[in-house]
Amino acid sequence: MGEVVVRTTDLVKQYGEGEASVRALNGVSCEIFDGEYLSIVGPSGSGKSTFFNMIGGLDRPSEGSVFINSVDIAQLTPKELAFLRCHTIGYIFQTFNLITVRTALENVTLPMLFAGTSPDEADEKGMKLLDLVGLGHRYHHRPSELSGGQQQRVAIARALANSPAIILADEPTGNLDLKTGQEIIDLLRKLNQEQGVTVIAATHDHKMLGVSDRIFHISDGKLDRVETQTPATH
Amino acid sequence: MRASDVRNTDPPFWVAWHQARASIRVRFWRQAITAAGVALGIAFFSSMQVLQAAEGKGADAAAVSRNQWLVATSLVMCLVGITNSMLMSVTERFREIGTMKCLGASDTFVVKVYFLESLQLGLLGSVVGSVFGAGLMAMATRAMGQPAPPSAVGAVMGFGTVLGLVLTVVAAIFPAIQAARMPAAAALRVEV
Q1: Confidence band of A217 (pLDDT split at 50, 70, 90)
Q2: Of the candidates A97, A91, A178, which has an alpha carbon nearest to the alpha carbon of residue A143?
Q3: What's the ipTM?
């Protein structure tokens, strides 16, 4: 296995104060390696989303620490955190979350502009990424003119924009039909194998679990079980 | 990564400008209503100023102060109206704001987009409002045989535009702060 990209130590997240407080996470320690395809599963209310937000740099722990690329995210200012998200992590959402008012290409180039890339360079790389996900010919379309599967492809291209170390996917197939969902899973797997991107996905989808290298089972705020498997090739 | 590695991650100004323009275009009618609110308030203000200029020193002092109160009240209502509609647009766009933050937008960028949006609406509304308000009242005073001096009408138009801009920018302060405070994790919320 490769180097560690994400490491958590005794991660605790508590919401609220005193008697009304809820421990969403209760001491999770784990390591996620470079280039792996990891799925996180757990029933709703298990702390899965909280864990996912923590390793994605979207929320800060109450106790313990999260290291992303050996940076302790609790030590970062909001601006540094924005920088980390921009450069190190690509996000894919269940609801696609393309910026509705911008075209496919503008969506893909936006993170590059945030990272300080020049517009020409960003456009060029954006077109390459759209070609990579098979949507080069629809670059000037707005999200409302694209199907769900196409929107998710644009979102994947956008997630790759700044060549991140990690791609975080929150139920990426949750709003798609079976066939389109399968295509998205295949695309993510392909990117994982060919480009060596680490993929971390929160999912319920059995097909998604089937291609994973490892599966984290979260329940009651703890990392209950880690399943290692040889992913099925299809 | 150390703190010294962190450069200024704010993209060039035109990125925020385009985002604001696109946001207005996509919600055109709603934004048009907001701009119309500004235009009406400023039109009322400008027409009253022109009327006062036309009446000159012969005006009834009590009537003038009553009018000033009316104008001030209408401007305050105008301000509250813009703030309200912008706040609604912030809560409605939680996912868009959260997503932009996930992509690396800083709080400053989000604030900038909101201010630019309100600035564009404010400019449109106050130019239209002051030109129509002052223009119509100038014609009306001429018809009544007591025309307002053209220089005064011009001055009112200029002042009305500036006032309208200031008003919309002030109205945008609170909504813009609200937008900047939106957590990046809001992008993951599924419920509408």
Answers
A1: very high
A2: A97
A3: 0.87
